[in-house]
Amino acid sequence: MSYSLLAAVRFDPFLETFTWNNGPDDLPSPYLLLSHQFHRFVSASVAAQWPSAHLTFDKLKSVCDNVVRKVNGTCMRRPLKIRLILSPSGDLTASAAPIPPLRYDPTLPSLFTPDAVSPVPFEPIWRIHIDTQPTSDTMSMKTTNRRPYDDARARAGMPPLGVPSHDVDAPACPDDVILYNASGAVTETSICNIAFYRRGRWITPPLSVGCISGIVRRWLLENNRIHEADDHELSLSTICDNDWALVFNGVIGCRLGKVRIRG
């Protein structure tokens, strides 16, 4: 199957206030974990033996800077979702669209402990359903082959990512849907990596079950905010209705959610 590598990056000047998001030069960066994204592109390119293995961080940042200037014009501080596509020939292209601004450090929800008696400070809480059938055609790197994820969203009554939800029953429509493999092991959601609160800490599915190696997932692991589960620790049988979930990706950062099991 022919595919290109795909990534979504958040541009938001508010990110420049957090030293954990500094770039390789240790200067403030408006791009969410762009150095992590660069390393993910390079490692995936090397594994596929693509010429794009010669991609440099400066080129990646330049492509992002150019699309921000093109889309934002004089409103340079408007937050954007940047969509990056890296082709097998090494061509890197970008498009962007406005998104709502951040209201707090996007990693803070990972510090939430559901067993603490305190109000939930990070709202809205996502409503997350579980897919009705397994998904096996996934890779550890996000690609332009989004069919398995769109199919899962359709089964949950959700439109494909990026498609307006005018015809969707809003009260019944979840914010995301949990995917699992043929063995019943939870892998990820349609747009995020996921973690569940177990034994006093957040645990996330290991890459061996078929989940995407997300950049925020990597950062959370490096900073001990989440921990990798054993291969069969997060199976469908361990997920209960009203379970807390932590979801995360390179655009939203981290969000809290509640699992809703449909009858």
Structure write-up:
The chain has helices spanning 34-48, 57-72, 147-155, 215-222, and strands at 5-11, 80-86, 92-98, 126-130, 176-180, 186-189, 193-198, 201-204, 226-228, 244-249, 253-259. By secondary structure, it is α/β, with parallel strands linked by helices. The strands form two sheets. Strands 6-5-4-11-10-7-8-9 form an eight-stranded mixed β-sheet. The protein is globular, with a radius of gyration of 18 Å.
Sum this structure up briefly.
The protein is 18% helix and 23% strand. The protein is α/β, with parallel strands linked by helices.
Essential attributes:
263 residues, alpha/beta, 8-stranded mixed β-sheet, 3-stranded antiparallel β-sheet, 23% strand, globular
Distance between the termini: 37 Å
Helix-strand sequence: EHHEEEHEEEEHEEE
Provide the helix percentage: 10-25%
Going by helix content, strand content and strand pairing, the class is: alpha/beta
> Tell me, what's the shape?
globular
> Could you report the average pLDDT, rounded to the nearest whole number?
91
What share of residues are in beta strands?
15-25%
Q: Biggest β-sheet: count, sense, barrel?
A: 8 strands, mixed
Number of helices: 4
Low-confidence stretches: none
Number of strands: 11
Strand order of the largest sheet: 6-5-4-11-10-7-8-9
Radius of gyration: 18 Å
